[in-house]
Amino acid sequence: MTQTSTRRPPAPAPAERAKTIATRECPGSLVPTGPGSGERVVPDLHHVHPSGSVSILLRDGHPLLTRSADAEVAVMFELADHAPVDLREPVRGLLWITGWLRPLGAAAARARAVAIAEHRPDPRLLDLGHGVSLLRLTPASLVLADAEGTHSLRPHMFSAATADPFAGYETGWLRHLEQEHADVFADLARHVPEELRGGRIRPLGLDRFGLRLRVETDADDHDVRLAFSRPVSNPTELGSEMRRLVGCPFLARQRKG
C-alpha cells in the first residue's frame, strides 16, 4: 500500500497503537527462532496482558510445549491487526512480541486462566488441565509496523501505554457507517488528494486523533488519515468531529455565527 502524503497528521504514539492492537482479538501465531526452529504455530488461544506478556494455550504433546519444558524457547509472537471491513489488503498493522516461552505450573496456570477469564471469558480456558497447557511468553522487545511507520518498543513502554478509547467501539461503528451511511464517504472524498478521488473510499480505522480511510484504485491502495480538530474521548465528541469532516450545514452556520 502507498502512503499518500508527506505531511503526517497527528496520530497516537507507537506504544499506544501497539497497546490498542494487543487489546483486540487479532489473529496470532508463534514463530520459533534460533537453531532448530519449527514452523509457525497457531495456538488454541492467546491473550496479551497489559505488561506485554502473552499467555499461550497449546495442546499437550505439542513439540513446542515439549521443547519449552526442558528450557526456555526463544520465540516471536505475531499479531495481525485486520481492518473492520473486507478490503483487498486487510492487514493494517503488525505487532511482533519477541521473548522467551516457558510452560506454567498447574497452580500458576489456573490463576492466570482465571485472570484472563475476568477480561475475556472463553470456553477454551475450561480445557486447561484436560488436554491443553498454558505457557507464558515473557517479552524482551516489541516491534510495531503500520501505516505510520515501524517502531521498536521496550516492554516498559508498552506496559505504561493505554489503548485508544475507541478500541472496542471501532469495528462495529465503522461497519455500520459503511453499510448504513455509505453517502458519508462521498462527502469525505473532498479531503482525499484529488488524484485519488476516483477510487473507492473505504473505512480503515478510527482513533482519538482521527479517521483513517483506504482508497482502493485500479493500480494500488492508499491510506489517508483525516485529522480531527482536537483529540476526542467519547461518542459525543466523535459525532461532532465527524459532522465537521462531512461538512454538516448546521455546524457551518454555527461557525459563521
Task: Describe the 3D structure.
With 257 residues, this protein is of the alpha+beta class. It is 29% helix and 32% strand. The longest helix has 14 residues, at 106-119. Strands 2, 3, 4, 5, 6, 7 and 8 form a seven-stranded antiparallel beta sheet that branches. The protein has eight helices and eleven strands. It is elongated, with a radius of gyration of 21 Å.
Number of strands: 11
Q: How large is the radius of gyration? A: 21 Å
Structural class: alpha+beta
Number of helices: 8
Query: What's the helical proportion of residues?
Result: 25-40%
Roughly how many Å apart are the termini?
42 Å
Helices and strands, in N-to-C order? EHEEEHEEHEEHHHEEEHH
Low-confidence stretches: 249-257
Mean pLDDT, as a whole number?
A: 90
Sheet with most strands: 7 strands, antiparallel
Shape: elongated
Strand content: 25-35%
